[in-house]
Design brief:
With 119 residues, this protein is mainly alpha-helical. 83% of the residues lie in helices and 0% in strands. It has helices at residues 2-24, 29-45, 49-56, 58-61, 64-82, 86-113.
Length: 119
Amino acid sequence: MMSYINAFWVGGLICALAQILMEKTKMLPGRIMVLLVCLGAVISFFGWYEPFMEFAGAGASVPLLGFGNTLMKGVKEAVDQDGFIGLFLGGFKAGAAGCSGALIFAYLISLIAKPKIRK
């Protein structure tokens, strides 16, 4: 039960901090998203993300910080396997399934929902 509570408050805190950044600064949402992905990658680089994810569960793995962690894991594995070129390939390999899934499901929903262009 405690894991659900930790996931809820940690995920909520991450989202609340992003909302505060949007309202109190002139940062656009896209830049805040990039900031969160980069922060997740930096936390992963230092080895702090795994203990954080064990504590927070889905509250840490679902937000954009988790995507940064996924990219950094892919880069680490690719560098160990392929050397220097892994710096460029690892993030693509690690994030490809998630990005492809998002594109495919968004396309399928667009076929069902009949989106309209707003003017």
